[in-house]
Design goal:
The protein is built from 7 helices and 2 strands, in the order αααββαααα. The chain has 143 residues and is mainly α. It has 2 domains: 84 residues, Arc Repressor Mutant, subunit A (Orthogonal Bundle), CATH 1.10.10; 55 residues, no CATH class. It has a two-stranded antiparallel sheet.
């Protein structure tokens, strides 16, 4: 719904919507253009938007749907503005999930050398995570 609400500001290409999100979140989030194109295609398939020459426009049905749900450009901007404050934490979470996926792949399909590298990386990472947790718990205890 965020993409639809941002279209209330006027028609836009996927690149322009990605840029709007980046501006609203002060650069914390810049959705990939191909993902925004996919979202726009979903909105078009549901009749929420039309797309002509790569430019998405909110339909009357889209306007009504947003109004019925109480979603406006202002509420989406406020939400994205707040979400932008957590960009570093969300990036950390994403990176850790990616790392876990790589580790799982190596664990299941890696050769002996890759598994040895994984063991070393896990030891290094575990130490860094333990230190980071101590530092953050100290910070919480101090406040």
């Amino acid at each position: 719904m965020a993409a639809a609400a941002l279209l209330q500001e006027g028609p836009a290409t996927a690149e322009q919507l990605s840029q709007r999100v980046s501006e609203i979140t002060d650069g914390a989030f810049t959705p990939p253009v191909d993902k925004v194109e996919f979202v726009i295609s979903l909105l078009a398939a549901r009749g929420v938007a039309t797309v002509e020459d790569g430019v998405a426009t909110l339909t009357e049905f889209g306007e009504q749907l947003l109004a019925w749900r109480g979603v406006s450009g202002e509420t989406v901007q406020a939400f994205l503005g707040q979400a932008g404050k957590f960009g570093d934490v969300i990036k950390l979470r994403k990176d850790l999930f990616e790392l876990a996926g790589l580790a799982r792949t190596i664990k299941f399909t890696g050769n002996d050398a890759q598994k040895a590298d994984l063991t070393a990386a896990v030891a290094t990472l575990s130490g860094a995570v333990a230190e980071a947790k101590k530092a953050l718990y100290r910070t919480l205890a101090d406040n």
